């Protein structure tokens, strides 16, 4: 069954996917004011009368009373306020629409750009999410908002349209309704204030609403709608296996072969497509014979496909067995209306030539118009036939053929002296097979003819003559020759197919190797080096990658290492970057450059430029190399985009973390550090203001308050300094052999004022050995843990400090009787500025104490964690400190 006789899997899959989605209908207009929103509301009201659940997600009436009247009576989803730059904007509430889940949602102005802070950047992305939820959508769009027409509209109207949508959005629409008005009618509506408000009308007429501009936009809208309808028809034909073609629209197919008129054929196809304003394609079918073509023929095919691509054709290379069958299947699948083929050069013996492609096309293409282009390409240098034959002649192969014939004859004659073998001819067939597999069709035919002569000479009566006495032997010899020809042809064909398979395998292995390299690359420099090295080695030349830096392209990687380009190459690279099109050698732009530059494009736009220079002077890339280079460029662009996204995510994470730390630090400075300062200022002002009236006891109490709050302030500042030293790596323990009991006792003495009205229980196992610690830093850790326990436990509850030796670790715990810490917060409390949320009862502090404890403990090679207290009451901060062999006591 031919490909065109069965449904296309891609088309069937697309139809299946559409069944699970909502349907999108776009009301397409050539310009603002033609009545798109009005037509959308009329259609919505008709649906509502038919019982369809309709809601207006967002509809822009622009103050038009007629439009507002149609909106009245429809359910409208309230808009969502979005704050941006101290202003409040009201955007479509996507979540409300998804929660409401109507059958049909109205979403006006498909090309709208959402206010920053919205879920999606563009409104068409909101529509995509609504469709994915199974909700039908009606929307509106002006033709000037299509991305592919953006530059065309700018040239025609002189206005750069900032809000655009990808062409794929319109292509995925299930239905398009064209809303059209004559230019003069639209200009009249504008003058009457029915399009824009009056103070904008004059400027709009001068810059956009002229008769010529509106006519051009109207034609583009009609063409876009026709192309979308045509694409829907082709998809329908492919999904339902309709052979076609349906001549609803002209499509031209140029059959590119190795004939002498191939360039003329391409230009003729271009002129034909231009006259009919039809799309056209240039297709070459690559069969098993391609590997055996001479270099001149391969170059003609490459040049023709390259020329077709430069002239705007879609170029394709199809692998297949039959040229005509593949061409017809492709033509039916693409609904082609006309096929243009070339007439091959005639030979001296026409009756010996096989039936050519053009003749077979004329015989089988009943549903297509076939145009035959004759003549030769002007200026083509045609080598003389003798030179061509000498160039194609494989002397080594023919020598092997002669040797194989002699060896087969000797072997057969030797065996015939001792054995009566009736099938000696099989020895010659073996020689034919071996030569065909090794050297191809020409030498195999030569060995077939030589074997025929040798078999007749040595093994048919009368022997050692070319005469044949028995008429039965005549048939034997003739059939032997026919069998040898068929065998040699089949073997040569298998050999060519093996070579083609080997070439395809090398290409696949090349792409796989490249994908593996760039996937394993960790950063952008590794990716760029992998790209330039692989491209240079694959194409046997030089390679560069240029990326934008400070507003201009800069060479970021090269193989061999290169960081300079001449003026021609620089101009080609800049043009390829600015226009997202190939430039340089072998392209239509700046072809005098020695370099070919390809833009590295992704869905987000261009990310850089890939440059290639072929070592062989004057050689251009073949179609196979061009396709391979395009694939490598696409993969390289995705790899570079991946590294850019990783860098963007890392920068965003660092920025977010920096902002969080800054906010936390400012919060601590403004609240927690201010509290002791207020107490100090209050006590000091009381001493100054009431110096003569204060009793000694009151004066002492105020002085103690100043001292306590100053010490508290000093602790906060010390924590900040310690955290800064930890973060910069400057806090390094000065270890010595110390007794843990001394450290705990010193910390309790230092925290005596904090531990008033509390009981501190110290339980240290006598087996705890001396530890190699920094006594001052470890005292700070115990002090911070005691301070933390006092802050987060009720007054009067005990605080327990106990330690025990277990293996090569000493376990130290500081426990309180507070409310405890939730499991999800037990790790986060060691982060800087983090404190467990406690509503209005938030305890004063910077949130640095435990972070400093972790830094100091880990600097000693230990670990610290938070665990629930005994019987689940309170919290225990557990430290695991490493032990070491005790010091030697010198007596």
UniProtKB/TrEMBL annotation:
GO terms of molecular function: kinase activity
Domain of life of the native organism: Bacteria
EC number: 2.7.13.3
Location(s), subcellular: Membrane
Coiled-coil regions listed: none
Membrane topology field: Multi-pass membrane protein
Transmembrane intervals: 395-419, 426-453, 473-492
PANTHER family: SENSOR PROTEIN KDPD
Protein name, as recorded: histidine kinase
Organism in which the protein naturally occurs: Skermanella cutis
Lineage, opening ranks: Bacteria, Pseudomonadati, Pseudomonadota, Alphaproteobacteria, Rhodospirillales
